[in-house]
Design goal:
- The structure is a single chain.
- Helix content is about 15%, strand content about 40%.
- The strands form 2 sheets. Strands 4, 5, 6, 7, 8 and 9 form a 6-stranded antiparallel sheet that branches. A 3-stranded antiparallel sheet has the order 1-2-3, with no helix packed on it.
- The protein folds into 2 domains: about 5-55, no CATH class; about 60-175, no CATH class.
- It is globular, with a radius of gyration of 23 Å.
- A hairpin with a 2-residue loop joins β6 (about 130-135) and β7 (about 135-145).
- The protein is mostly beta strands and about 190 residues long.
């Protein structure tokens, strides 16, 4: 008889990520667990079940990060709300721009205004825009809103760290904007 294949499911429980395995089929058991091996790979016990317990995330090498930005204390956003979204680094600037605009509408507009924007995009007073480099559009940065506003850009090494007291903190490295040479005019 063939041994059943375990299936892994990631769960977020009490600020901790658990990787729990279960086996579909008639194995006769519904649940035994074991800790992961030091190598980080899960160890499957005799019943074909495993559990992997982690306290932090592996850093994302590169990702699109969307955060709240503001000027002045009157528009300040709480630190735990600063990170709004993460998108895959392979997404195009246009796709990120469209998603950031929809996130801003969802978070900041009244129901009445949401209906207006759904009917006609031109009714949106805060369209998402690309950044500029030397007066030219640059698809590596997107902003949307007034104050506070959403800002999307690619970052490196994004990770969530869980302190000993159980609080989550995010950290990342900003990628420096390219500094292309200025185009000179004709003579």
């Amino acid at each position: 008889m063939r041994k059943p294949t375990p299936h892994f499911v990631n769960l977020d429980v009490d600020n901790e990520t658990l990787c729990v395995a279960y086996v579909a089929g008639n194995s006769g058991h519904n649940g035994a667990t074991s800790r992961s091996r030091p190598s980080g790979r899960p160890e499957i016990d005799d019943e074909g079940l495993t559990e992997l317990h982690m306290r932090s995330t592996r850093p994302l090498k590169t990702a699109w990060l969307v955060t709240w930005e503001w000027i002045g204390d009157h528009a300040r956003v709480k630190d735990e709300k600063k990170v709004v979204a993460l998108f895959n680094y392979r997404w195009s600037g246009e796709r990120v721009r469209d998603f950031v605009e929809q996130i801003y509408v969802a978070l900041e507009f009244s129901d009445w205004s949401k209906v207006g924007v759904a009917r006609n995009q031109r009714d949106n007073p805060y369209r998402a825009q690309f950044g500029t480099l030397n007066g030219r559009l640059w698809h590596g940065e997107v902003s949307c809103g007034h104050n506070p506003w959403l800002r999307a850009r690619q970052v490196r090494n994004f990770e969530v760290v869980i302190d000993d007291d159980g609080t989550n903190h995010t950290r990342w490295e900003e990628i420096q904007r390219p500094n292309p040479p200025k185009l000179s005019g004709g003579t």
